[in-house]
Amino acid sequence: MLKSDVRSFWDQGxxxxxxxxxxxxxxxxxxxEKSRYQFEPFIPxxxxxxxxxxxxxxxxxxGMGCDHQQxxxxxxxxxxxxxxxxxxxxxxxxxxxxFNLNSNLILADCECLPLSSGCVDIVYSWGVMxxxxxxxxxxxxxxxxLRPGGTAKxxxxxxxSLTGYMLWMRYGLMxxxxxLGLEYIYANFLESPGxxxxxxxxxxxxxxxxxxxxxxxxxxxxxxxxxxVGRRHxxxxxxxxxxxxxxxxxxxxxxxxxxYLLITAVK
Length: 267
Ligand SMILES: C[S@@+](CC[C@H](N)C(=O)[O-])C[C@H]1O[C@@H](n2cnc3c(N)ncnc32)[C@H](O)[C@@H]1O
Prior knowledge:
39% of the residues lie in helices and 18% in strands. The protein is an alpha/beta fold. It has a seven-stranded mixed β-sheet with strand order 3-2-1-4-5-7-6, with helices on both faces. α6 (135-145) links the parallel β4 and β5. It is globular and about 50 Å long. Bound molecules: S-adenosylmethionine. S-adenosylmethionine (SAM) is lined by residues 6, 10, 14-16, 61, 63-64, 82-85, 88, 109-111, 126-128, 131-132. GO terms for molecular function: S-adenosylmethionine-dependent methyltransferase activity. Pfam families: Methyltransf_25 (PF13649). This is Methyltransferase domain-containing protein.
């Protein structure tokens, strides 16, 4: 998989655009923000935006800039945001202009950050590093730019997820290709080409440079078939599944089969 393919995928549409509805830009950003935290209420608790006060914060992979806006509101000493896609930088710039917020927005690859070592207190990255070809290098870069004692808060995808099983049924089993592994399914049918997902042990290995690493599994709106689940996934079968999906049962019995790995790692 080429990084240019990843960039071109995200240049065609940013994550969360399906929530951004409304007649004018400000309204679209507000609608997206409302829906994002309605469907992903665990983000603020995990990110702990308030911890940014008077700190240097770097967000890697800002997308439409919704979480970045929360970091900015918490009055960090310095805020930096990066993304590989021009579309993401443009969206976030527009959002920050509209809401009168400040950040240093940089079009940059997370495998090679244009920052000096040890200059950041908090690195935050939500749903980004599994998209880049060399995820290990992306984690290494996050570690490098953090100061000793600094914290990385990172969400990457979990291999054993309901989302993965559903995609396998749709693109493996129903196409008479049950031998396709989950790696292939995530790489070809979830989001940008080459997307990866990790077991808890694999994620722990990725973060083995850090001194203290905590990992939690989180069921998301895709696992629960709530809301839109991305621009690649629409159709009558999905509409029927959404009506029949046993969400209460999943929340009770399949909590360890969520798509998200929430990783808190201290350097
Ligand atoms: C699923 S979106 C997540 C965006 C945002 N964090 C959010 O939660 O809405 C993935 C983002 O990662 C960015 N991305 C992918 N590969 C990257 C790389 N190598 N360096 C920086 N950003 C990258 C994409 O451009 C895209 O904006």
